[in-house]
């Protein structure tokens, strides 16, 4: 099988592990810089061109599109979909997951557990927004933030109001969520591949930090999740339409609540914490499912 990966940094652990896993199973995996791909979008025969040569003959594409290049990366991925190349995750599903507001609306529609979340445009509605989220302390999130960047804890009503008004004054879109105090700065990430949980880890924030992201200095260890947490993660992946994803959950007093569904989860933390070959599971999924023109949306939606 000939596999293409869209990624800007081929040296990342996750990308190297996927190359290694593919080659161990007798496949070839080429990595191309997403931003250096270009397209003739009006051609009757859709093509993606890289360094002057069309990218042809691929059986599958693995999108590892950075959050900062989502718009262009999804355009490139859609072009591959229209060429009939099988995507590990479809462009429409990645787009859903990258839009924090849309993803929460979809998860809520499916009846999945979420922190109480408020969203408003007018800074004059700050008091009402804080009331909806249950009052301080609250978590204030940039819609475009990743890896814990742009996530602020408003510990008092006054400080939360100041942060919200500052963001809104700068025309930045934010969500305000209830703070799940009982989680104690710890969350769970479950890796879903093909509708099944393949690994779960518990992440604990650095001393004094309520965010548990490993990029922010958090630590990870293996964990046994409950049947309810397992069901929540699988349903979340299905609701987003993602074949491979990381589902981040908190243990609240009223069951698991979803913080985020990540369409390009890092593999280093979970592989090191659990000892499970996640990269191999992903390549195995492609072996079973990568068929021409199998994309559900073919770039639509």
CATH superfamily of the largest domain: ATP-grasp fold, B domain
Overall helicity: 25-40%
Please give the alpha-carbon distance between the first and last residues: 28 Å
H/E element order: EHEEEEEHEHHEHEEHEEEEHEEHH
Q: Please tell me the CATH architecture of the largest domain by its name.
A: 2-Layer Sandwich
Q: Are there runs of 5+ residues with pLDDT below 50, and where?
A: none
Query: What is the count of distinct domains?
Result: 3
Any idea what the shape is?
globular
Q: Sheet bearing the most strands, described?
A: 5 strands, antiparallel
Strand order of the largest sheet: 14-13-12-15-16
Query: How would you state the average pLDDT, rounded?
Result: 90
Tally of strands: 16
The structural class is: alpha+beta
Report the top-level CATH class of the largest domain.
Answer: Alpha Beta
Multimer state:
single chain
Q: What is the CATH topology descriptor of the largest domain?
A: D-amino Acid Aminotransferase, Chain A, domain 1
Brief write-up:
The protein has 301 residues and is an alpha+beta fold. It contains 9 helices and 16 strands.
How would the blueprint of this fold be written?
Layout: E1 2-6, H1 13-24, E2 28-32, E3 37-40, E4 47-50, E5 53-54, E6 60-63, H2 70-82, E7 86-87, H3 91-98, H4 100-109, E8 117-118, H5 126-132, E9 138-142, E10 151-154, H6 157-169, E11 174-178, E12 186-193, E13 196-204, E14 219-222, H7 227-240, E15 244-252, E16 255-262, H8 268-274, H9 278-289
Parallel strand pairs: 1-2, 1-6, 6-7
Antiparallel strand pairs: 3-4, 4-5, 8-11, 9-10, 9-11, 12-13, 12-15, 13-14, 15-16
Helix pairs in contact: 1-9, 2-3
